[in-house]
Write a structure and sequence with these properties.
Radius of gyration: 23 Å
Structural class: alpha/beta
Helix content: 25-40%
Shape: globular
Largest sheet: 6 strands, parallel
Number of helices: 16
Number of domains: 3
CATH superfamily of the largest domain: Mur-like, catalytic domain
Length: 469
């Protein structure tokens, strides 16, 4: 039976030539994995629950990939030498039971790709802030002259970057708990753990299981590797005590003797010999203290790689933030609209509210991912005038926040925008901070954010037309 090499073997020696490999899930990661495996000589079956798939899937047949649509057949999986699971597929699905009994390896797409990468890996995980930090690290390293590819959970599957990988390249990779939980040999040169809060409890059986998945990011690191930790997060510090890698800290609020901190109006690297200025705060264009924390994390990595303070500052100054992350999308009659559709958990919603001032009308709801909306009562009572709720989690939000703030129901996001505008005061803000996943009403958080922008644009046009009449 085909058996992938373990961590002691060189990653470039990993071979799938002639092996029967089943890729489960035909979304972006699965398609990229299937394509990569086919080019490396594997006999590939791509199995998908949906019957209707796009050209990116059907086009794989030209590479010899066999498609199984409309379900994952037990016979297909039982004949596998290796199974690669897309992040959206639960590792606990019953059809994998026999695969495990036969001791056939089940790995994630990111684990597969990492075995063939030639360059160094900078990997970033955490409950919130991964995409922003990864994008900013990539921009800083590029400004410093490094050859960089940004990928992973941020949008480009790591498997699609393998053929372009060279020994001098740095792969900056966003990794989620879904991608990490099935890693075996994944070993970043620099791993970054941003923060840890309750999330994805609709997927992981417990918070403990979620944390266990996150800590896989540094599980295979050795003393020659580096782990960047957020010293402001006690959970991060607790869980990384067992790390074999060299720990480098950053902190926005906690006093630390060595690491990257803010002194006055400058981000600096503090060491036993003094402080070196890295980035002035005047260059940071992102909203919120949590976004500033992400800048510290990115600055820490860039400093470790050897990027100059000047190049770091240029990259930060030119970075306005990511789409759907505290993104200003317009103003209507003195009311500001902010899109934080990527705030898909309760802690992210808290940070969004804390970042947008007072007199907020917050649009929330979607598919519940775990956590307690009651924990938001303090910040909502002090900052929010009302909450507009929609989606599957509306009753939970009523129960959690109803005692401290006015709650109004809406059946669609377009309606929610209009209701929120009607309740907002001039100088106030309508904030989309769902605190939930989008999958009950939208394809993903990005679609939800785009619909929010469209609703705001439509409202603005309507108000302007009335003024002209």
């Amino acid at each position: 039976m085909f058996q992938p090499r373990d961590i002691k073997a060189a990653m470039t020696e990993f071979s799938v030539a002639g092996a029967r490999v089943v890729v489960v899930g035909a979304a972006r990661s699965g398609v990229a994995a299937a394509r990569l495996l086919a080019t490396r000589g594997a006999q590939v079956v791509l199995t998908e629950q949906r019957r209707n798939v796009g050209e990116s899937v059907t086009g794989l047949q030209g590479l010899g990939v066999e498609l199984e649509l409309g379900g994952h057949g037990a016979q297909t999986l039982d004949s596998a030498d290796l199974v690669v699971l897309s992040p959206g597929v639960l590792p606990t699905v019953a059809v994998l039971d026999e695969v495990r009994r036969r001791r056939v390896p089940i790995i994630s797409e990111i684990e597969l790709a990492s075995r063939w990468l030639q360059g160094r890996i900078v990997a970033v995980t955490g409950t919130k802030g991964k995409s922003t930090t990864v994008e900013l690290i990539g921009r800083m390293l590029e400004a410093g002259g490094s050859v960089v590819l940004v990928g992973g959970n941020i949008g480009t599957a790591l498997s699609s970057q393998v053929e372009a990988s060279t020994p001098d390249m740095i792969h900056v990779v966003e990794v989620s708990s879904f991608q990490l939980e099935l890693t075996r040999t994944f070993r970043p040169t620099i791993a970054v753990l941003l923060n840890l809060h309750s999330d994805h409890l609709d997927r992981h059986e417990s918070y403990t299981a979620y944390l266990a998945a996150k800590t896989r990011i540094f599980a295979n690191q050795t003393a020659s590797d580096t782990l960047v930790v957020n010293a402001d997060d006690p959970e991060v510090l607790r869980l990384t005590r067992s790390s074999q890698g060299r720990r480098v800290a950053y902190a926005l609020t906690e006093p630390i003797d060595t690491g990257v901190v803010v002194t006055g109006d400058v981000i600096v690297r503090r060491s036993e010999t003094g402080e070196e200025k890295l980035v002035p705060l005047s260059a940071v264009r992102l909203l919120g203290s949590h976004q500033l924390s992400n800048v510290l994390a990115a600055s820490t990595v860039a400093d470790l790689v050897g990027v100059s303070p000047r190049d770091m500052t240029v990259a930060v100054d030119r970075f306005p933030g990511l789409e759907h992350v505290l993104e200003p999308v317009g103003e209507v009659a003195g009311v500001r609209f902010v899109n934080d559709s990527k705030a898909t958990n309760i802690e992210a919603a808290r940070r969004a509210v804390e970042s947008c001032g007072d007199h907020l009308v917050v649009i929330m709801g979607g598919r519940f991912k775990g956590g307690a909306f009651e924990s938001l009562q303090g910040v909502f009572e002090s900052r929010a005038d009302a909450v507009i709720v929609l989606g599957e989690a509306r009753e939970r939000i009523h129960e959690g926040l109803g005692p401290v703030v006015r709650i109004v129901d809406a059946v669609s996001l377009h309606e929610a925008v209009r209701v929120a505008y009607g309740l907002a005061v001039p100088g106030g803000t309508v904030l989309l901070a769902p605190g939930c996943a989008s999958l009950d009403m939208f394809q993903d958080y990005a679609e939800r954010g785009r619909v929010f922008r469209q609703a705001v644009d439509g409202l603005k046009e309507e108000i302007e037309e009335k003024r002209e009449q």
